[in-house]
Specification:
Elements (H helix, E strand, L loop, with lengths): L2 H20 L5 H5 L9 H17 L13 H4 L23 H21 L2 H34 L26 E4 L2 E5 L15 E5 L2 E4 L5 H9 L11 H9 L8 E4 L2 E6 L2 E4 L11 H14 L11 H11 L38 E7 L25 E4 L16 E3 L8 E2 L3 E3 L2
Parallel strand pairs: 8-11
Antiparallel strand pairs: 1-4, 2-3, 4-12, 5-6, 6-7, 8-9, 9-10
Bound molecules: fe (ii) ion.
The site of fe (ii) ion has 4 residues, from helix 6.
Length: 436
């Protein structure tokens, strides 16, 4: 076996093992719960990530086992080209396949992939290696989803009984964030999108040029302390700050704070992967929708002074700022293997330097950009043509990665996307403004 295949098999096994290690400490009930349609239960994540390799790699390689056929219906997520599927909202309503069955299936699929890596002819390996790479990257995406899902699952339990996902560290000491400062960014004809070696999704390509006016970029993420001021000023009760659909959501769902915040005898706390913790005013605000982010920016702008003109960045502004001011995945608060449990909450900007900080990790940053194809976009071939392109409709782009994104999975050009109303992801806010 050549060294390329050996390294790939090591990485495959590491990524697969991280998924199962994230499940340590779960109770049988945790694996089956789907408190809302967007939150898939863990049994499904374990199975679906395996199904992805079975169907897209092992089947074309002639290594698909007939008895896996029974998992096709429950484990297909959204691939119209790969047959009928269990509706997403029913994943928490079925007792079969069982969780143990999914763990056994994982083992069988792992064996199949390793056997492929060991024995496939060189032409076959060359043909299918891109699919294996996509399968690994796909699994990493589901590791982040798993953490957002277990947060929602445990958060849906009765408050008196809620159990943290992990116990780690003490509650943060109350701190105050440094004031928001603006960093000038030179516009012009700039390049965005992925180019060169290394993996990138089809939707990050090709690299292309866009024109940007000069702008100013917020040096840090918007904090919980900033958000407390927005709350204190009645931000959630001022319709003129909100986009129409956002105001409707706030009214219909009676939203009055970020998704996991609650107020108890006058002070705010937040449900996190580490349990319920007092709000840390210096830490980035998390679990806000695009609508909340835009309303907050509007409110900031209305404050005048240094904040006049505050708005969210476009994705091109975000990527240009990240490229020209140092996107540093090595230093961001991202998911490690093994994970540093105490960092499964957003971290304050303190001590991270004078430039633009927190670009990588902590929280995904909403941009105003609609999720669309870049000029010259070419979707993946075959069944995976459905991976990204068909979702380029009614969603907004987020950039930068979060505390739940595997560290070796994110780039400056990485495009995440969610509907504007989404609040269960690790999503936060970066401000920007025109340079005047
Ligand atoms: Fe998936």
């Amino acid at each position: 076996v050549n060294t390329g295949r050996h390294a790939l098999s090591q990485r495959f096994l590491r990524v697969r093992a991280l998924t199962t290690s994230l499940c340590e400490g779960l109770r049988p009930e945790d694996y089956r719960s789907q408190p809302e349609p967007e939150v898939s239960p863990p049994w499904w994540s374990l199975g679906h990530t395996s199904w992805f390799f079975a169907r897209n790699l092992l089947q074309p390689a002639g290594r698909y086992r007939g008895e896996w056929q029974r998992f096709e219906y429950p484990l297909n997520s959204y691939y119209e080209g790969l047959g009928p599927r269990l509706p997403r909202h029913r994943r928490g309503a079925v007792t079969r396949p069982g969780t143990e069955e999914m763990l056994a299936y994982r083992g069988e699929v792992d064996d199949g992939v390793l056997d492929f890596l060991l024995k496939a002819s060189e032409p076959e390996f060359q043909r299918l290696q891109p699919v294996l790479e996509i399968g690994i990257q796909h699994e990493q995406q589901h590791q982040e989803l798993f953490l957002t899902e277990i947060l929602a699952i445990r958060g849906a339990d009765p408050e008196q009984l809620r159990a943290p996902y992990r116990e780690a560290g003490r509650d943060p000491a109350a701190r105050t964030a440094q004031p928001l400062r603006w960093t000038p960014c030179k516009g012009g004809l700039v390049a965005i999108g992925h180019r060169g070696a290394g993996f990138a999704w089809d939707n990050e390509q090709p690299e292309h040029r866009v024109f940007l006016a000069d702008f100013e970029f917020g040096n840090r993420l918007v904090t919980c302390g900033d958000w407390l001021a927005f709350l204190a000023d009645g931000g959630y009760r001022q319709p003129l700050l909100w986009l129409s659909n956002g105001w409707n959501q706030v009214q219909e769902q009676r939203i009055a704070a970020p998704r996991y915040w609650q107020q108890r005898s006058g002070s705010w706390s937040e449900w996190t992967l580490l349990g319920e913790r007092p709000i840390d005013p210096a830490a980035p605000v998390c679990h806000v929708s695009f609508y909340e982010a835009t309303a907050f920016a509007q409110w900031c702008s209305a404050q005048g002074g240094e904040l006049r003109g505050a708005r969210l960045p476009t994705e091109a502004e975000w990527e240009h700022a990240a490229r020209s001011h140092g996107f540093d995945a090595a230093r961001g608060n991202l998911l490690d293997d093994p994970p540093a449990w105490e960092r499964l909450v957003p971290q304050a900007a303190e001590g991270r330097g004078d430039g633009i900080v927190q670009l990588a990790g902590d929280v995904w940053e909403w941009t105003t950009s609609h999720y669309e194809a870049f000029p010259g976009y070419r979707p993946f071939d075959g069944a995976l043509t459905e991976y990204n392109g068909k979702f380029m409709d009614n969603q907004r782009v987020l950039r930068g990665g979060s505390l739940a994104t595997p560290r070796d999975h994110v780039r400056a050009s990485y495009r995440n996307f969610w509907p504007a109303w989404t609040r269960f992801q690790f999503s936060g806010v970066r401000l920007c403004r025109d340079l005047t």
